[in-house]
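Hi F.,

I've been meaning to write this up properly since the lab meeting, where we talked about keeping a consistent format for the predictions we share between groups. The idea is simple: the sequence comes first, exactly as it goes in, then the structure tokens exactly as they come out, then a line or two of notes. No screenshots and no reformatting. I'm using this chain as the first example so we have something concrete to point to.
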Amino acid sequence: MSDQRNLILAIILSVAILVGFQYFYGKPELGPGHEAALHQQTQGQAGHGATSATTAPATSPAAMATPAEAGGTAPGALTTPPVQPTAAAVAAVPAPRIAILSQLLHGSLSLRGDRFDDLSLSDYHKTVDPKSPDIVLLQPPGTAAPYFAEYGWTVKPGSPVALPGPDTLWQTTDTELTPTHPVTLTYDNGQGLHFIRTISLDSHYMFEVVQKVENKGSTPVTLYPYGLITREGDPPTSPYYLLHEGPVGVLDGTLKEHAYKDLVKEGRISLSTTGGWFGFTDKYWLAALIPGQNTTFTATYQHRLGGPLKNIYQADYLGSAVTIQPGASASTTDRLFAGAKEVTLLDQYEKQDGIKRFDLAIDWGWFYFLTKPIFFALDYFYRLLGNFGLAIMLFTVLLKAAFFPLANKSYASMSKMKKLQPEMKKLKERFGDDKTALNQEMMALYKTQKVNPASGCLPMLLQVPVFFALYKVLYITIEMRHAPFFGWIKDLSAPDPTTILNLFGLIHWTPPPS
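Output, unedited:
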């Protein structure tokens, strides 16, 4: 009975560790000092020039404090990036588009507002069937689930400078954006400012946006660059704390994770930082703003209600002031990642472009020092064997072999405890209800026989974090998505489709989920 009690105790302690981990470390991290960045919501919006026909709703974005100017004086309150046009406005005024074409992406770029609002992933499909629809990542306003990104400039409230806004129709002679052919868009505000925007795309999922402003007027102009990602509606998320989905980023060198419900509750979460990245993550996909890694900006997550009572989530940043003298020009360079969270690709961007801790876009969890090495081990065996199922089996066998000395020690301890059962039974009969005397005699017996009751449990507990990390890797990494094994197993990331209800696959019918 003692070995059974040890096993039960080990199970209870293992569950307690997992539950405790999720309670203390699985909850979203708001980060220190974020309360100071929360501001009272205010009405009003900075003018965006005569080209903007959008009317700001009653719940306009809150005012925010900008980083200090180069001279050290803060310019005061600036509005966040402009409110996006309504679905009706977009439907009423169709805009010309530039096609986005690459081996991994396809979609289009709207010339009205210059929005990234139509993007699909060519290599990923909704089901294991390669003929099923591609994964749609970004969608324009007016669709069922609008999700888009935008870059631009803003000014102090009350400034008469006309700027390109969400309804501005940009001019271009380009028709396609490809990895070998960037596009250039232009806009003239009629007041001496000429805006030039050059967009390029690499061979994967990274866009580069270079914004240039030429001041052909007679007075200096001070502008503030911004970027935003807007997501409408409530995206489906995992019901488990095992995985974070929602607002995520590395700001001020620290991983920041928030739940959508955090934004609904707080309304606004803001932080000043130098470098970093942030945006919205799903289980396998990411859309992230990546300002220049040496620039200081204010990153903000915020929530507002659209109609009818539709949640709108926005991630945006506001850069430091840029003053452009007459006859001069200024430019900023930013990046937008929109695609699949492939481990080696994120690592490549981190090293190649200096994007701080970009690999944390994947929720490696508290056991980062275990989960990421486990992934690389599985990936190595996959490249060796050509099948993730075989890779998992080989890794598990090697892992069990590595833990064999611990397991053997545990079994030996349990065996010794089993041999002591007759003596322990005699002690219970001898001392009856005298618990104190019974415990003393049992401890003396353990000491005499050189048996440690806990030695049967501890080796088992040491294995729990490793196997938990293995499970997490299998659950979160896109490399396992739609990866086949053999026979009826077509997707290692999905539950086994065979049950007794379909005679373990003999009947071609998928039972409804329980």
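Notes:
Residues 21-79, 86-92 have pLDDT under 50 and may be disordered.
Residues 209 and 260 are 28 Å apart (CA to CA).

If this format works for you, I'll send the rest the same way.

G.
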